[in-house]
Design brief:
15 helices; globular; five-stranded mixed β-sheet; two-stranded antiparallel ribbon; disordered C terminus; alpha/beta; 414 residues; single chain
């Protein structure tokens, strides 16, 4: 029975909160303007009759109100602003109308809540995003220096890559512009660049320390078994995604991150477009950059081999995580190759359980026979990626591309 329940919508701001409640059964509407911090709205929620279920949009005020309300025994949901239905003809927007709209949508069950992170996970997320902001600042500083010199006909002659070699840094320090004002500007730009490098090193050190801390150390170790993912990318994915075990299938995670195609279908016509780009843009960028490492033939670098060996040590990554990373390295195909040699598009349940931290499938599991074959739907795994070899550790030539026959067509990522 839902009669008597008060569905509350809150339009939260830094110094004022607009609230509207709709009581089912009687249809009575309660409105209020709560002055003060968002936490002050808890007192008004307690004064409402019956059971209270409240909602507010995720925004700059954060999750403090939701945590405080749940600590007080109140049910408060945080919804995604992009998932709120909006009428194109509605041109009147006020805080009171927004709060009443949230209350009615919550009563109708048309809102999708977001996971409220723990304070520790939110702090890690802030650290990762600060590192991402610093990356943009560093790129902008380098662009300003390069364009300042390019306008005066100065281009680094080499050898070495700009910003990645000591010769380039020495060349920047040896530049002496004729105009004293331009020389002053160059000095300021170079000083700003040095400060940004020092800040980046401090944040990288702090992120490396957090990668060894609980409760996300095991998940970071599992992710680092994949090609293209090291400490910075692994910690970023953990901070943005949170609990990987909350997703029953990788397709749900892809949808959560906006990596699934958009679709506009009607009748017998089906039309799919670009990816939806929903969810965290940072996590999506990290995964796309890591995916570029799979455009080459499967090979195991010395660093990745060391991480996989470390994952077999006690109290570390389960053995299945290294095997999942090795199978993913071989999940590429060549145009025109026999279909029997192509792996399945979807990873096996055992692979997903290994990466998400779940226990392996038991022999009595109905999917166990499928899992132990590598999730290929009964198909044979590609050369050098058999589970029997991966589960016992990687040898020096387990994935050596030189042992594979040459192919005339270039390999493409499935």
């Amino acid at each position: 029975m839902t009669d008597g329940i008060c569905f509350v919508g809150l339009d939260v701001h830094a110094r004022k909160t607009a609230g509207a409640a709709v009581q089912l059964g009687s249809g009575e509407v309660f409105k209020a303007q709560v002055v003060g911090s968002p936490v002050e709205a808890i007192g008004w929620l307690r004064s409402l009759p019956g059971e209270v279920r409240a909602v507010y949009e995720a925004g700059p005020t954060g999750f403090g109100l939701a945590r405080a309300a749940r600590a007080a025994g109140l049910e408060v949901m945080v919804c995604s602003p992009g998932a709120i239905p909006r009428q194109p003809g509605d041109r009147i927007k006020t805080d009171a109308r927004d709060a009443l709209k949230l209350a009615r949508l919550l009563a109708a069950g048309q809102l999708r809540g977001v996971t409220v992170p723990t304070p520790e996970l939110e702090a890690l997320r802030d650290l990762v995003r600060a590192r991402e902001d610093l990356r943009g600042d560093l790129m902008g500083a380098r662009h300003r220096i390069g364009k300042l010199l390019l306008r005066r006909g100065l281009v680094f002659p080499g050898p070495g890559q700009p910003w990645a070699s000591k010769r380039h840094l020495a060349w920047l320090g040896s530049i002496d512009l004729a105009d004293p004002l331009a020389q002053t500007v160059l000095g300021e730009y170079l000083a700003c660049h040095e400060v940004l490098l020092a800040r980046r090193d401090r944040l990288d050190t702090l992120i490396a320390e957090q990668a060894q801390a609980e409760p996300w150390a095991a998940t970071v170790a599992r992710l680092r078994c994949m090609r293209g993912i090291d400490t910075l990318t692994a910690v970023g994915l953990v901070a943005e995604i949170g609990d990987f075990a909350a997703f029953a299938h990788p397709k749900q995670l892809a949808s959560f991150l906006g990596l699934v195609p958009s679709e506009q279908s009607s009748g017998e016509r089906r039309r799919q477009g670009a990816i939806t780009k929903a969810g965290s843009s940072h996590a999506r960028r990290l995964l796309i950059e890591a995916a570029w490492h799979y455009r080459r033939r499967p090979a195991v670098s010395l660093a990745l081999r060391a991480r996989n060996r470390a994952s077999h040590r006690p109290r570390s990554t389960p053995r299945g995580a290294a095997g999942c990373g090795s199978r993913a390295a071989g999940r590429i195909s060549t145009p025109g190759a026999p279909s029997a040699a192509r792996p399945s598009r979807s990873p096996s349940r055992a692979s997903w359980r290994a990466l998400s931290g779940r226990s392996p499938a038991s022999p009595t599991d109905q999917h166990h026979q499928h899992s132990v074959r590598g999730g290929g739907g009964g198909r044979r795994a590609p050369h050098g990626t058999h589970d029997a070899a991966m589960s016992t550790g990687l040898t020096a030539g387990a994935l050596d591309p030189r042992s594979r026959p040459r192919r005339s067509a270039p390999a493409v990522l499935r």
